Amino acid sequence: MPAATPAPVSPGAASTTPLAPAAPPAAATPPPASPAGRLRWARFLPATVAEGPGRRAALWVQGCRIHCPGCFNPELWAARGGRVDDPAALAARLLAQAQDGGVEGLTLLGGEPFDQAAALAVVARAFREAGLTVMTFTGYRHPSLTAWADDGREDVAALLAATDLLVDGPYLRDHPDRRRPWLGSTNQGLRALTPAYAAEVARLEREGGADRVELRLTRDGGIEVNGWAEVAALEELLDGLDGARLARLRRPTGPHLTRTTEGAPR
Ligand code: SF4
Fold first, then answer.
1. Which residues line ligand 1 (CB under 6 A)?
2. Using N-to-C axis directions, what is the helix angle for 87-100 and 117-129, rounded to 10°?
């Protein structure tokens, strides 16, 4: 499927559903129409069990305009830095690594995936066409995204169409969600956009679930962390690793992916 061409942004094309008062205003306005031919990204893990259902690859994108107060990943806000690649070529490389890792799908986090919707749709479709699932985290709300898609935003429509499981809504640090895995605050939705995870979503909404955190030793002797943990628990875990460098690998969907304890790695 060819990359969608972003349509001009209509400043008035916001969701009709009001946001909670604490929500950042940018979450209610359409994302920028970014180019389909270049993707700015920050990190990639070929296999993790901490970033969604099952064993998954995870791709953190660089850049987020929403700026939720308390976001755990402010280093991923800037639309500079990271690496820039052609999304089709990048998808081929990442898919090969993910398949070597034996994953069931790809998780897109940030940063804000819908701020680069056209390029990420290219990546997401490549994984879907290989028989893998796609989970996407976003600080925008699903009703807003569908309204913008219906209003002509083909890039937004394309990424929604390539997503099986969506976590949506800005991170509200005063409303932590300690019951459902992967979500930072109770306002956020866990939405099965295809049947792939419908039963899992129903189970998690009914029973809740646990978060996970992963630590990896890097070749230079440092430690990378992803997933979620309370800061105190993580510091206790890391006690005794004197001299180790903690390179935080945060979930880019960031604060809306984190919970109450600011600074916890995602
Ligand atoms: S929580 Fe997500 S949407 Fe909110 S500022 Fe951080 S990266 Fe952006």
1. 64, 66-68, 71, 73, 76, 110-112, 139, 170-171, 252-256
2. 40
